[in-house]
Design goal:
Elements (H helix, E strand, L loop, with lengths): L1 H14 L4 H4 L8 H6 L8 E13 L4 E8 L15 E7 L13 E16 L2 E15 L38
Parallel strand pairs: 3-5
Antiparallel strand pairs: 1-2, 1-4, 2-3, 4-5
């Protein structure tokens, strides 16, 4: 009988958490703001950061990703609805195809801080933290919820829920 109570808990716990590729990578709770003030004082510290890709530059032996940092949620996904914190660069020994790691895609990186590097943004030169990647996770694109849904009708999905009654008391797809 107890198994029936434990089964839903186990199933729900499997849905939450970090993706496996970055979950097992060591990381400390060091924020981007702390490191951006003095990246050299945090050398060799493992971190887990995320953001949105700005640029991919493939060199002869490694690839460099330029990323706008965003805070991560409990699943490790960048919270792009919040304000960006700044830029950082990720160095990876793997070839990162610019078609796959395209601009504006969300990414989470587990890596080690190796110092800082210079970037030219417009006509200005800035210093940003440099990470050596140990694990990279490219997030799949989320569905846009501002469109017609075959289950709930057009946005907003009120009143009614598809399994009970389609469109609620006011007929199918009544929009306020």
């Amino acid at each position: 009988m107890k198994i029936f109570f434990l089964l839903p808990v186990l199933l729900l716990s499997a849905c939450a958490g970090l993706p496996p590729s970055i979950a097992n990578a060591p990381a400390t709770e060091v924020s981007y703001q702390q490191v951006s003030l003095d990246p050299n004082s945090f050398k060799d510290v493992p971190v887990r950061w995320g953001g949105v890709i700005i640029d991919v530059d493939n060199e002869e032996h490694d690839s460099m990703l330029q990323i706008v940092a965003y805070p991560l949620d409990y699943t490790g996904r960048p919270q792009t609805q919040r304000t960006g914190e700044g830029r950082f660069v990720v160095k990876s020994p793997e070839f990162l195809d610019p078609a796959v790691y395209a601009k504006d895609k969300e990414i989470t990186i587990a890596g080690v801080i190796t110092g800082d590097t210079e970037l030219t943004v417009g006509k200005r030169v800035i210093r940003v933290p440099l990470l050596s990647a140990t694990a990279i996770y490219l997030w799949p694109k989320l569905a846009n919820y501002n469109y017609y849904s075959p289950y709930y009708g057009p946005y907003p999905y009120y009143p009614g829920y598809y399994p009970l009654y389609r469109g609620g008391f006011y007929g199918p797809f009544f929009r306020w």
